[in-house]
Amino acid sequence: MLHKIKRPDGELEIDLDEKHRYWLNGKQLSGGTKVAQRFASPSFSIAANWAGRCAGKKAEEILSKVMTKEASLDELTIEKMVKSITNAHWGISSEAKQTGTLVHEALEKLINARMDGSETPPAPIHTGERTAFNAFLTWEEENQPEYLGSEEVIYYLDAKSGFDYTGTLDLVFRLQGNLCLGDFKTSKVFTEEMIAQVALYATAYEQCHEEKVKKLFIFRLPKTDDGELEIIDFDFTPKWRRFCRQMNDLDHFQREIGKELRSKIKELRNAKN
To answer: What is the model's pTM?
Structure first.
């Protein structure tokens, strides 16, 4: 899908494909999420611990079936059991991603309806999406934001280095006159990666619109009836802009190192042949 981005230096067309990859004139761009992931290593350990817990729960479930003779222990079923335990987190992860996607779509419809002046769209049917949707409605009623945009593709280019990245903003709004950006999350915890990501998006937004962003918000939306909306917000100060430029530079530096390494390895292998 092509997205037209109006910038002070002209209009760009960025293609966002079905795998959520960004392209500009045939060149694949770095996404803000990927750039943030390089410098937020604690999120990896969180994911690894979570995957381990998923495997443990699946193993407990299988052992229970064996002990109650619901399942037999021949070689074929053991192989299947091991595979089931090893891959337990993938099924849960896929389901969680699907819920996250549906929540984003529901909130995008809501925000667009508010900007168009049309009726509030119905809440989603399924519990996870409906709970998140209603929690955000409550925040909206209490804070009365002025919505400016939703799912906006933005692009950042460093004029000196030529390094660039792009991404998609969940929410642009004003709160008490201040320009704010928001990012929707449906994960169970906040991570450093989330803060880095929304800060990178703010840097790109400012370059596209030539307007300073005041505050950044991360909305951690609940997916169960007993959950609650949690929000992190912080001022987007000059130090964050400096950090974002540094992250962008380091991201491209790391990728250049990778290219150089692969090139040298290829030369070595060709020399041996």
So the answer is: 0.72
